[in-house]
Amino acid sequence: MTEHSKQAESTFALRCVINGEAQTIETTASARLLTLIRDELELTGTKRSCDIGRCGACMVLMEGEAVNSCLAMAYQCAGKSITTIEGISKGGFDPIQQAFLEEGGFQCGYCTPGMIVSVKGLLDSNPSPSEDEIAEALSGNICRCTGYGGIRRAVTRAIEGRMLAK
Amino acid sequence: MGMNAQGSMAFPQVWHPQTAAEAWHLKQSFGTDSVYVSGGTLLRTQWESGVAAIPKHLIDLSAIRGLGEIRIGETGLVIGGQVSLEACRTHPIIQRHFPIVTEALRQTAAPSIRRLGTIGGNIASNIGDSLPALLGYNAHVVWYNGMEDLQITLSEWLKIAGMLHTERLLLQIQLPFQADETLEGHEVEHLRSVISKTKRFSAYHKVGRREAFTPSVVTASVSGSLSEKKEVNEIRIALGGGQMIAQRLEELERELLGKVIDVQLLRHVYNRIMQLYKPREDLFASVSYRKTTAAHLIASELWKAAHQ
Ligand SMILES: Cc1cc2nc3c(=O)[nH]c(=O)nc-3n(C[C@H](O)[C@H](O)[C@H](O)COP(=O)(O)OP(=O)(O)OC[C@H]3O[C@@H](n4cnc5c(N)ncnc54)[C@H](O)[C@@H]3O)c2cc1C
Ligand code: FES
Ligand code: FES
């Protein structure tokens, strides 16, 4: 057995980049990213709901791609760049957020940070997705208020806005 | 809201073996106090729902060398067990040569979960939705038994799944290319003339309440080839769903070889699936519902293969 495989201390120093800033968080290797973001870093824009990957409220970007922070464990985030909803709006409202506001893409707003994170992950890698690609990218985000109509309009507007801004 | 399993339990130690042998030894030493972890997405749902307790030791398989890539091997495509479901879903060679695997993965969870979950975890769970599609291409698995790497068909692996030690470690999946995809020179010419007269077909269906989120009621795949006269040259029928370990219906496959697809044969297919497919009942669907669904799906796909 190598030295490396023996490293299984109960404490773990998670080194990663969160919203552009290098962080070292003293935690345990199996701690959930969601807990670290909300309780350690107090970035409460990321929401907690189902705890098992089914609702999308806890969505963050890992290396630019949407993942559920309730499923990711600390050791799986080592060396990674994580972006939360606070990171997306660091320089003011992101055009995606603006589109959600203008198109009525939310009501209670609980699902909204997760929705915006998923849309951001999609449009950064695929600026003009098809209807099917949008549906697939948002298939892990549940909204219990809007009926999705406003959300779909918001995504369409965000796509147009980003095209015009180029 | 799900119970937060972390609130009530001590945090497990996480081990990061670099080789299959190290992982296997760790599992041997810790026994039932430990579990292998790939993406951890299925385990998390089991821990949070109380189906399984969080063990004292997690053996993270992601650092084992060579398991995180997809490459072309001598006889087919080799997919490392640590490759994410999403990387498989979007891989151009899988899309082109193994389309029902792509389709099965498109219908498995949401992309955000597929980025964490792995193909190895999906297979090792014995109930993953990728299984009927992989069986449709006669996939092989390579696994480690504590001494050596062993290769076996996925179909055989699933048959003995219940008897294998929990230390068994899934390393790779191999998807054989069709004969016409590996041949060269004059062999290709000969084969092309045969192939131009045969029709390949494949289909995958997942029937469930909400495709991205719930275990399926039935997952079914059928693939093979037909002659010009609609005789079955080659066929694989695989069924899974719910908590049932996916299986090929090899007896029925043998019965169909050389037969012409007509109404009588489809009736036979339907009746035999009702006899041979042994799904499990749960809160969501009865055995007879699952059987009828599977029989309709396979019979209608065979009809399409012959008539469209
Ligand atoms: C919201 C949600 C929706 C889901 N929807 C689907 C779905 O539609 N279809 C579906 O099939 N699954 C679904 N799943 C389950 C799961 O995400 C997938 O099955 C996934 O492929 C599991 O892979 P993993 O790497 O996360 O496995 P893990 O959770 O790490 O492991 C799963 C099991 O396999 C064992 N294991 C893992 N790797 C190996 C290995 N290499 N050798 C031996 N044993 C191993 C583990 O010990 C564990 O028992 C869903 C999960 C969630 C959270
Ligand atoms: S809290 Fe993570 S998906 Fe629901
Ligand atoms: S706006 Fe209330 S859940 Fe989506």
Automatic annotation (TrEMBL), chain A:
Molecular function, one GO term: anaerobic carbon-monoxide dehydrogenase activity
EC primary class: oxidoreductase
EC number(s) on file: 1.2.7.4
Keywords: 2Fe-2S, Iron, Iron-sulfur, Metal-binding, Oxidoreductase
InterPro entries in UniProt: 2Fe-2S-bd, 2Fe-2S-bd_dom_sf, 2Fe-2S_ferredoxin-like_sf, 2Fe-2S_ferredoxin-type, 2Fe2S_fd_BS, Beta-grasp_dom_sf, Diverse_Oxidoreductases
Domain of life of the organism encoding this protein: Bacteria
Residue ranges annotated for the 2Fe-2S ferredoxin-type domain, each copy included: 12-88
Protein name: Carbon-monoxide dehydrogenase small subunit
Taxonomic placement: Bacteria, Bacillati, Bacillota, Bacilli, Bacillales
TrEMBL record, chain B:
Residues in the signal sequence: none
Domain of life: Bacteria
EC number(s) from the headed UniProt entry: 1.2.7.4
Record InterPro entries: CO_DH_flav_C, CO_DH_flav_C_dom_sf, Diverse_Substr_Oxidored, FAD-bd_PCMH, FAD-bd_PCMH-like_sf, FAD-bd_PCMH_sub2, Mopterin_DH_FAD-bd
GO MF assignments: anaerobic carbon-monoxide dehydrogenase activity; FAD binding
Keyword tRNA processing: no
A Pfam family that the UniProt record links to this protein: CO_deh_flav_C
Residue stretches making up the FAD-binding PCMH-type domain: 6-180
Keyword line: FAD, Flavoprotein, Oxidoreductase
Enzyme class, broadest EC rank: oxidoreductase
PANTHER family the UniProt entry points to: XANTHINE DEHYDROGENASE SUBUNIT C-RELATED
Record-given protein name: Carbon-monoxide dehydrogenase medium subunit
Source species of the chain: Paenibacillus endophyticus
Species classification: Bacteria, Bacillati, Bacillota, Bacilli, Bacillales
